[in-house]
Amino acid sequence: MKRFALTLTMIVAALALAGVDSTARAQEVSVQGPLAGAPAVVGLRIYRETRFTVQLHCAMTLQDEFSRAFLPGGQLMFHPTDWLGIGIWGGFAFNIDSALSDQVTAKGQTNAVNVLSLPNKTNFTSQIGRLKWVAAPQVSFIPLRGKLGIFEKLFVDADFYLFGGVGFVGLEERADVTKEAAANATRGSLAQAIPMLERTQTGPESRASRVAIAPTFGAGLNLFLADFLSMSIEWRALPFSWNTSGTDESGDERGDFPDKAINSSDRLSHFNHMLTLGFGFYLPVRPKISTVDD
What we know:
The chain has about 290 residues and is an alpha+beta fold. It has helices spanning about 1-25, 100-105, 125, 180-185, 190-200; strands spanning about 45, 50-60, 65-80, 85-90, 95, 130-150, 155-175, 205-225, 230-240, 270-285, 290. It has five helices and eleven strands. The protein has an eight-stranded antiparallel barrel. Strands 1-11 form a two-stranded antiparallel sheet. The chain is elongated and about 95 Å long. It starts with a helix and ends in a 5-residue tail after the last strand.
C-alpha cells in the first residue's frame, strides 16, 4: 500500500508539472499572419487627444447651512494626450437662502448675552457669508473609458476622470468688529444697543470681501453625445474656513467664550462641495481615429 500511494503521488505530481509547462508554452505562442503586431482595437475614436474643450456648465453647492450658491460658468481645457488634460474651471454665483435662514429670520431671538451674534433676527440674512465666484486651474486624469448601454438598446461612449488643482474662491462675509467698537455700541440697555449696532460698522449689514485659496479635487463622468459634443456630471470639493453665520464663534486668549468680537478666528472649517452639470464642445470637431499603425 505504501508503494502504491508513493507511485500515485508521483504520477499526480508529474501530471501537474506537465499542465504548468503546457500552460506556460501556450502563453508564449505569438500571433502569426496578418494580425501579427496589430493593436487590440482598430477604428477607436480618440476623443480628447490634441483637442480643446470649451465647456458651459452650472454648479450647485451641497449641504449648505445658510445660503446655497448656483454657479453658471465654463471650463477651458487642452488635452495633450487622451488621458491627460490641463485647463481652468470657474463660475460666478448667485445665492438663495436656505430654509434654516428663513427659520432664524422668522423665529430667532435676539442674543442678550452677546448682541454681536444676533442683534436683530430680521437682519440675519444680511450677516451670513456668501460665495460669489470660483476660479480653479486644474489637471485632469482620465484612467477609464468604454461604452455605457441604456436598456441594451442605446450605447454611448463614456469616460471616467479625476481632477485636482488650486481653487480661488471669492467670498463676502460680515466685516470684522473689534471688542472696543462692540463695547461702545452696546453700552446701555439692550433696547438701545440694537439700534446702535444697526447704525454703525458693527452691524450685520457691514460686509467685507476676500479671496480664499483652497485645494480643489473631484471626479466626473463624461458621456460623448457626438464627435464634438459631450455631457458631464461631476462632484467637486473645496475645503476652506469661513464664517458662514456671521456670528461670534470663538473665545479669546484667556479662554473666555464668546470673545465679543468678529474676526478671522470666527471662521470655521467647512468641507464645501458641489455638483456640476456641463456640456462640452470639442475643437477640432472631428476626433482622431486609431489605425493599424497606431
